[in-house]
Specification:
The chain has about 210 residues and is of the alpha/beta class. It is built from 9 helices and 7 strands.
Length: about 210
């Protein structure tokens, strides 16, 4: 159950000296999801849509280059708030350079904020790996905030102990709002386990 000592030490140092107040994004209750790969244009304002959540499956590609060149607001023809989701395939999240590529996309694309950083944290994975990834997600969330990106962190944890740790870190970092990757729990092995984890996560979030 012992995580990577180096990443744990790095997080401890950050938490001990953290003096920033993360930006809080004012968002509507309903935020449609759009994929950057499928350049979908819609008269969102006629539908009273004020914000979009942009998703993607790879931080490289022609469509990503277009977003960087045109700016995401021009690319999607939308003048409201556009957030970028960092929920990506595990192999992308774990690959070298994916964070830096995503940060570059956020800055050059002119996104208004980001949901993340995501990392694979599963109940059936070895606990040391799961906790190491949870710490890595927290460290990357710190980097997004330091990079000047308004950030809504992903609340994560494969069991109550991990969720409690993540909650403590987010409190100490000053975050007052979080996102929950619901399907990560809904698709857990077994309906009873999914219900238990989802209920646990929602309860913990209310404690923030």
């Amino acid at each position: 159950w012992i995580p990577n000592k180096q990443v744990m030490k790095e997080l401890d140092l950050i938490l001990g000296s953290w003096d920033r107040i993360p930006a809080t994004l004012k968002l509507p209750k309903f935020i449609p999801e759009v994929r950057l790969e499928n350049r979908f244009r819609c008269e969102w304002r006629k539908l009273d849509v004020q914000a979009l959540l942009a998703t993607f499956s790879n931080p490289e590609g022609e469509h990503i280059d277009r977003v960087k060149e045109d700016g995401v607001h021009n690319y999607l023809d939308f003048d409201g708030t556009i957030l970028l989701s960092s929920i990506l395939p595990d192999e992308i999240l774990m690959s070298d350079g994916s964070f830096d590529l995503t940060l570059d996309l956020l800055k050059k694309g002119g996104f208004d904020g980001v949901v993340g950083w995501d990392m694979p944290v599963y109940s059936d994975a070895p606990k040391a790996r799961s906790l190491t990834n949870l710490i890595a997600a927290a460290l990357s969330t710190v980097k997004l905030t330091k990079g000047g990106i308004p950030t809504i962190p992903l609340f994560k944890g494969s069991d109550e102990k991990e969720m409690e740790l993540d909650l403590q870190w987010l409190r100490r970092l000053g975050f007052g709002q979080v996102a929950l990757h619901a399907t990560e729990y809904i698709l857990s092995k077994g309906e009873d386990q999914a219900r238990e984890l989802m209920g646990m996560a929602l309860t913990k979030i209310r404690e923030l």
